[in-house]
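Bench notes, afternoon.
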Amino acid sequence: MSTDRLHRERVIAAARSLYDRGLTHGRTGNISLRYGEQILVTPTGACLGTVRPGDLSVIDADGNHLAGPPPSKEAFFHATMLRQRPSDAAVVHTHSTHSAAVSCLDGLDPHDALPPLTAYFAMRVGRLPLLPYHPPGDPGAAEPIARAATDHPALLLANHGPVVAGTNLDTALDTLEELEHTAEIFLLLRGRATRPLTDRQRGALHSPPARKDTP
C-alpha cells in the first residue's frame, strides 16, 4: 500500500469511528491529517459515515486547494491549527452534542470554558479556550484560532463545537472524546456543587513523579 493510500485509510478509519460512536451526525464534522508538505482533509458536504479514501481533498499549509474535490469550508482552520502546532499532524472538528451544548451556554470563562472535573480532562485537554462566534466557514475565525492554538491543543468555538489537534489521529480522537465526556459530566452536574481539581492538582499531573533515592 502506498504512503498516500495509507494516510487516506487512516483518515477514513477516524471518520468512521467518529460517526459510529455518535460524535458527529449528518454531514457535519471534518478531519485533516498532515504528511510531508500536504494536508489531507475531508471534502465539503461529506458525511463522515460514508466518505471514501478517494473523496479526500488535498490542501497545502496555507489552506490552498491542491487536488481532489473541494475541501471542507472549514479546511482553513485545520491549516491554521497545524501551522501553529508544528509537532501535531492531525485536527478533528465535530459538532458533538455535549460539547456543542456547552458552547452555547452564557457566562463561561473564555479562557477556561470547562472546569477540570477529572484528571484525564486536565491531562489531555488542559485549559479549554472558548472562542467568539463566527459563522461556519468565516475566515475571520482564523485569527482567534491561531492565537489560541499556540498554547492549547483543544478549542471550543462558540455556538459551534470543538476543534482538537493531536500528534496523530488517535491522539486527536482521544482528546476529543475526553472533551465530550467532560462536557456531558459538566451538564449532568449543572446546578450542583462540584469539586474541580485545584491548580496544584492540575500542575502535578504534568510534573514528573518525585524521584525516590535508593540507599
